[in-house]
């Protein structure tokens, strides 16, 4: 550990860590009192993310509990001083149940990392304190000062600000924003030897543009560039690593958490990347310290087993609502609809049985009209909540241009296709579907009646002015 953090074995197939005995100076451990069949390595992940999660190593509690224990310690003791030296030289590490300090590795957080790697079919994963810390740590590790990134022009506002303002100012890392649906434009923007990362969202925030991950991966690798994909909108629905992505990022705060009560992130990718991020001298995770709290890791770990059930219902409700909204003549954007330009693409990439995602957009034309609809949806009909974020069991809605994409200039929003009246909805699953749809229709009817009254008043005023 004089040069790097201990190289951790993320694909350890043993279902439980072997506990050290008090006299374990050689790193040998006593067998745990429980055991399970050997688990597959990440190279044998199956086609269903839920099945991969079930095959991940199961961590029992300290006293044989079915749930793992929460390791709340910030620092860890050793029985002999020589052991500490061997840990700092990298001879002993977390793969042998030796821990130093929870900013490096914590047993509870480490186990969640194994689960996230299984979810995304990657060799390794490291969980962080927020989605933005996962994004910034990964990009700073992969992109040295003065290098170049090619990114989708339609991204979450915070990510766009990181790429367009913070990284150029702090690190001289420049970004060229492109239409990722135009593969020739993507290819032409990559500067061989200078560009380090091609960055996209699997389904863009908020316009729901779908990234052609296999094709983008082929272009990136042809040019010697890594493809980094933010998969926050579509956990379970898409598995970007299986489609060719090198790194998959998550804001775990969203669908994976599901409760709108946790801030967390995850970096899923090759073990060499995660280990490099733990380097004592150059590792972004080690030196910037975006540490996840063990209690948060435990909470998330308990929610992962039912993520597949939640995602299927999010997607089912979103598909049903989008279909009905379209029948009403509304301008609805949802990749599950046949008229979405990327419907066939998403269908070809999606994991079977999970649908097309839990996000949809309504374009109400103007911000004023969007705000009126959201007002009545929340305050009159109780359909959902006016709030940012997504993945909650209640429907959340916001006018993206004036909220989650407000970091972008008017020109940047126009190029990204974010209209002033675009309402982003994270479709929840509370209540019955018919109950929620009746609430939506009630609010919409009020808005349409108000539109009619406004039009009538304007016509009357216009007629009066002519007399």
Automatic annotation (TrEMBL):
Keywords for this protein: Lyase
Source lineage: Eukaryota, Viridiplantae, Streptophyta, Embryophyta, Tracheophyta
Record's protein name: Methionine gamma-lyase protein
Keyword Lyase recorded: yes
EC number: 4.4.1.11
Keyword hit for Lyase: yes
Superkingdom to which the source organism belongs: Eukaryota
Top EC class of this enzyme: lyase
């Amino acid at each position: 550990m004089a040069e790097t953090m201990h190289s951790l074995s993320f694909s350890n197939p043993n279902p439980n860590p072997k506990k050290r005995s008090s006299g374990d100076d050689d790193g040998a451990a006593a067998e745990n009192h429980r055991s399970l069949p050997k688990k597959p390595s990440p190279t044998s992940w199956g086609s269903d993310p839920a099945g991969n999660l079930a095959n991940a190593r199961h961590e029992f509690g300290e006293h044989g509990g079915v749930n793992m224990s929460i390791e709340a310690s910030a620092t860890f003791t050793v029985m002999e001083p020589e052991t500490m030296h061997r840990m700092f030289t990298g001879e002993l590490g977390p793969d042998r149940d030796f821990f130093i300090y929870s900013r490096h590795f914590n047993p509870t957080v480490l186990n969640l990392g194994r689960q996230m790697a299984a979810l995304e079919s990657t060799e390794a994963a490291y969980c962080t304190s927020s989605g933005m810390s996962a994004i910034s740590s990964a990009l700073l590790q992969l992109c040295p000062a003065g290098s170049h990134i090619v990114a989708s022009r339609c991204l979450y506002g915070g990510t766009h600000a990181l790429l367009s303002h913070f990284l150029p100012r702090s690190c001289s890392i420049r970004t060229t924003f492109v239409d990722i649906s135009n593969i020739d434009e993507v290819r032409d923007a990559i500067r061989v030897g200078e560009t380090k990362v091609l960055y996209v969202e699997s389904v863009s925030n908020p316009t729901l543009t779908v990234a052609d991950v296999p094709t983008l991966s082929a272009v990136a690798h042809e040019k010697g560039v890594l493809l980094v994909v933010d998969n926050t909108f579509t956990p379970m629905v898409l598995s970007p690593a299986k489609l060719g992505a090198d790194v998959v990022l998550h804001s775990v705060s969203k669908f994976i958490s599901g409760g709108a009560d946790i801030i967390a992130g995850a970096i899923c990718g090759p073990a060499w990347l995660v280990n490099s991020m733990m380097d004592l001298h150059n590792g972004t995770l080690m030196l910037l310290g975006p540490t996840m709290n063990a209690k948060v890791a435990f909470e998330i770990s308990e929610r992962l087993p039912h993520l597949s059930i939640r995602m299927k219902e999010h997607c089912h409700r979103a598909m049903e609502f989008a279909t009905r909204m379209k029948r009403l003549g509304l301008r609805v954007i949802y990749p599950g609809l046949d008229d979405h330009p990327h419907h066939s693409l998403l269908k070809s990439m999606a994991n079977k049985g999970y649908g097309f995602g839990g996000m949809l957009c309504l374009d109400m034309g103007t911000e004023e009209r969007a705000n009126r609809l959201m007002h009545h949806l929340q305050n009159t009909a109780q359909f959902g909540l006016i709030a940012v974020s997504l993945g909650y069991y209640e429907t959340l809605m916001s006018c993206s241009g004036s909220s989650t994409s407000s970091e972008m200039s008017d020109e940047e929003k126009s190029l990204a296709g974010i209209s002033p009246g675009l309402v982003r909805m994270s479709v929840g699953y509370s209540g019955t579907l018919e109950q929620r749809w009746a609430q939506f229709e009630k609010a919409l009817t009020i808005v349409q009646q108000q539109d009619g009254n406004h039009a009538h008043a304007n016509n009357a005023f216009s007629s009066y002015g002519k007399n």
